[in-house]
Amino acid sequence: MGMIKHLFIVNPVAGNGIALKMTKTIHTLFNELKLKYQEISYEIVYTKEEGHATEIARKYAADEAYRIYAVGGDGTLNEVLNGMVGGEAALGCIPGGSGNDFIKSLVPKFDRKRILMNTVLGQVEEIDVASVDGRYFINISSMGFDASVVNNVEKFKTLKYLPNKFAYLASVLDTAKDFKNLSLRMVVDGEELHTEAFMVAIANGKYYGGGIKIAPEADHQDGLLDVLLVRDITRAKIMKFLPKAIPGKHMDLEEVTLMRAKKVDLYSDEPVFINIDGELEARREAHFLLEDKKVKFIMPKSAW
Questions:
Q1: Residue 73: helix, strand or coil by DSSP?
Q2: Nearest alpha carbon to residue 299 among 90, 135, 131, 56
Q3: Contact (CB, 8 A) for 301 and 93
Q4: How many angstroms separate the CA atoms of 45 and 110, rounded?
Q5: In terms of Cα–Cα distance, which of 210, 217, 212 is closest to 199?
Q6: Close Cβ partners of 131 (under 8 Å, ≥ 6 residues apart)
């Protein structure tokens, strides 16, 4: 423990300041650890702009002595990941954002302080890494209704009378008014499919959208991506589909098809939003790949 170097990359604006408040907890934890491990060292650095977390992580990633922790939301985790793939350092996730979906696949209970302690004391394992057009991700990328909801949700987060936890639901209701199914061509490990899609999720993790268990069978160490295709969801069906999807009870619906693959290509007739670990881009096509390379990831200690 003493020879490991701990680097915390903190996004100070994540979670409306939650990540920034986590730094006090980090200081407290390491003051306690130093009583037992005198040589233990840690450093906290703060991101200044979009993409800065990737630059910081890349600077330290070659040193296998480092454990590099992303302190923020899933977007911060994605940025740090993109600076570390191919390096020797290990990646850790300290939830300091509003969603923090990837970590929910790894812990039995969402407790920020406990996750911090158990991650610092955790063991390193290799996990799968996916990419979309060269950008790495470890959780979920999606196209369709859910990506449009993410694009729409920001305007509800700014409403003072609406708590953030209800912003996603408000965006669902608002997006449903005008959403039209996508006309897609999918190529899944070489098999071609033409379909009208409500949404497609390419999943390495289980959760997105602030706790929706959209891919309950996904496994970040099985060497495959879960490809979730949802069709024939009309406006009237959305509010029936969502309550099932939140706890992951939707997989037996006839509108849901699950495929597993290493390579997925999606082609749309018109530009649509793609959600990549919570970050949005608009494009007509996207090419997903489960990479041969892995990332060293710090699994939170299982003692709860």
A1: coil
A2: 90
A3: no
A4: 24
A5: 212
A6: 137, 288, 289, 291
